[in-house]
Specification:
The protein has 214 residues and is mainly alpha-helical. The chain has eleven helices and no strands.
């Protein structure tokens, strides 16, 4: 399995080069907000929403003082705007009160923020701070199972297994796996004939696997 994982890793990194998130951001504050908004929502929709959001709330301090109704109106096109608006304000308030207005640099600290789970924390740590973390979203979960890299029932367990198998370059691999799952190894109609990992895949053209339990 380790040998197979290294072959997959090499091909993914050779194919995608230096992949990163498709979310648009200028700093750690903006990335964290975008990641929270991206839960069960497309990056494209988030990117269409955040320019106006950051114009209204250009800093973590301004977001901490946001009016809930106004914020909900600003992100109304995003999935679950009510809950996400509450999480954003509470997150910003905690960053200001507990971390001096600076986005935390550790997984443990990030996970104390409202609206931030391990997946979101790992994205911020890997993208903004260059740390060796891999986040498992629906794309990574699907690809890992189709390639036979994991049989885990949950994203967190899948993350553990992939981290052990791949060891290094987890940040780049995370985004390579997302891009591979988003554009090639699609959920409903995977492009198996054009896949550069076809010979290593356990899925081929079979039916899609069940979505992860959350």
């Amino acid at each position: 399995m380790k040998n197979k994982a290294q072959h997959i890793k090499t091909r993914l990194l050779n194919h995608f080069g230096n992949p990163s998130t498709e979310l648009r951001y200028d700093n750690a504050y903006q990335l964290l907000v975008a990641v929270i908004l991206s839960a069960q929502c497309t990056d494209a929709r988030v990117n269409a929403t955040t320019p106006a959001l950051f114009a209204l709330y250009p800093s973590i301090e301004s977001l901490a003082q946001a009016n809930l109704t106004q914020l909900k109106e600003c992100i109304k096109s995003i999935s679950y705007p009510n809950n996400k608006a509450k999480h954003l304000i509470k997150m910003a308030q905690k960053v200001c009160s507990h971390f001096g207005g600076v986005i935390p640099h550790t997984q443990e600290e990030l996970k104390t923020l409202p609206g931030v789970g391990q997946k979101s924390a790992n994205v911020v740590l890997s993208v903004c701070f260059g740390q060796n973390y891999l986040a498992v979203d629906t794309h990574v979960f699907r690809v890992a199972h189709r390639l036979g890299l994991s049989q885990a029932k949950t994203p967190l367990q899948t993350e553990k297994e992939l981290s052990v198998l791949f060891e290094s370059d987890l940040a780049r691999l995370h985004h390579a796996l997302i891009l591979f799952g988003r554009y090639t190894c699609k959920a409903l109609k995977p492009l198996c004939k054009d896949c550069f990992l076809r010979d290593l895949c356990m899925h081929k053209a079979k039916s899609s696997i069940i979505s992860p339990k959350t």
